[in-house]
Amino acid sequence: MAGNALRIWTMMLVATILLATSVAVHSQDKVPWTNGGSLLPDSSNFVTASLLVMSPGEAIYSQLGHGVIRMECPVHNLDYCFSFEEEAGMGGIIKFFIGKTDAHMMAVPTVEFLKGYKLDGRQVMQYTLNLTTHEKQELWRLLDNDYVDENMRSFNFLQNNCSSVSLMAIENVVVDETLDFNGWPEEFKMINGDGVRYLTRNFPWLQFWSMTFLGTESDTYWPHEQQVAPELLPLVLKKASIVDADGSKRPLVTGEKELLPLVNAFKASSVTPMWVFGFLLLITVLVTLGQFKWELKWLLIVLDFLMMAMVTLAGVLLIYTSFVSGLFGVHWNWYLIPFNPLPLIIWLLWHKRKGFHKIYLFYTVVLVLFILATPLSKQLDLPHQFITASLAVRCIAKR
């Protein structure tokens, strides 16, 4: 009998410990209300709207950070983050480059939404919006109904992203009032090419791919609302005001706090495009010089084949993204001059004809002139021109 009592007591003790542990873990996951407590007489704390800004992550699509809208209603125990999301995984990446990425506002319970950021050690800052109760309710209604209209569903890396859509949603509910940004920060006054380089300054591969596809958009200016990246959101929010019909102003943001601390600061790879394509140019020069001294036939065939394949594939992708997909809008892309399918087509049709080497000489001149034109467009940069120089070296060797 004593043994049974001991076993029962032990089982109860273990169950109590497990229950207490579960409650403790659950309480740690709980995100505190921004404006909790009992409902105020004016119902101003019935709904709370905030913008959350996340620090950069390791995935290339998260290296600029993220921005979402948090909506809370403590009375009904509702707390959701509305995030402008596109399809994840390899399928989403492919759809992104072909301009077919659909995006929409996704509602996720805040406690669940923040788990991934906590696991990754990314910082999450919250900026409480100073909207009226009606405006907050209207904002929630719009987000619930998927605010984003049809012409904005095609995700655009810079012009139509999480931050710009969130900011436009707020502007959309300020009906009888207006938003005054009190002069945009200097970061918004850059020409597009400089602006993209500024935002991607810590992420060399993201910068390389962005500049690859930006084309002549590099030399234009986008509206300020379309340039808002997560990094720039706090600059905009802290300076902005809401102007009433009578001209009185109130700040757009009334509170700022850190929901999650920065634990793991993202560090970009030290293997940058500058190093990779600079090394490619060095190898190309050495191999080309070696062909005049040693028998390097098969090595040269492999090198030329790889370069021809790279130029052709890059050209097809650039043509599609520039003129079909609208990834950054339909526009001319300067990199179509060195990277296009034309060299392969010409080689297939005429490489056995006499005097074909003159075409190599002509293409070498084109490539050299393209390199010299680097200062003429904000799109052109050194990593891409290292590739162009590598092509020029192989062409001049075949003239």
Explain what this protein looks like in three dimensions.
- It is a single chain.
- A hairpin with a 5-residue loop joins strand 7 and strand 8.
- With 399 residues, this protein is an alpha+beta fold.
- The longest helix is centred in the C-terminal third of the chain and has 29 residues, at 297-325.
- The strands form two sheets. A six-stranded antiparallel sheet has the order 4-3-2-1-5-9, sandwiched between helices. Strands 6-7-8 form a three-stranded antiparallel sheet.
- It contains 13 helices and nine strands.
- The protein has helices at 2-29, 89-97, 110-120, 133-144, 162-173, 192-199, 204-214, 233-239, 273-290, 297-325, 342-350, 357-372, 382-397, and strands at residues 48-54, 66-73, 78-86, 103-109, 124-129, 178-180, 241-243, 249-251, 253-260.
- It is elongated.
List the helices and strands and how they pair.
Elements: H1 2-29, E1 48-54, E2 66-73, E3 78-86, H2 89-97, E4 103-109, H3 110-120, E5 124-129, H4 133-144, H5 162-173, E6 178-180, H6 192-199, H7 204-214, H8 233-239, E7 241-243, E8 249-251, E9 253-260, H9 273-290, H10 297-325, H11 342-350, H12 357-372, H13 382-397
Antiparallel strand pairs: 1-2, 1-5, 2-3, 3-4, 5-9, 6-7, 7-8
Helix pairs in contact: 4-5, 6-7, 9-13, 12-13
Summarize this, please?
By secondary structure, this protein is of the alpha+beta class. Helices cover 47% and strands 14% of the residues. Helix 6 packs antiparallel against helix 7 (204-214) and helix 12 (357-372) runs antiparallel to helix 13 (382-397).
Largest sheet: 6 strands, antiparallel
* Side-by-side strand order of the widest sheet: 4-3-2-1-5-9
Fraction of helical residues: 40-55%
Q: What's the N-to-C terminus distance?
A: 100 Å
Whole-number mean pLDDT: 83
Anisotropy-based shape: elongated
- Kindly provide the radius of gyration, computed on alpha-carbon positions and rounded to a whole number of angstroms: 28 Å
Individual helix count: 13
Portion in beta strands: 5-15%
Structural class: alpha+beta
Number of strands: 9
Subunit arrangement of the protein: single chain
Low-confidence segments = 10-28
Order of helices and strands: HEEEHEHEHHEHHHEEEHHHHH
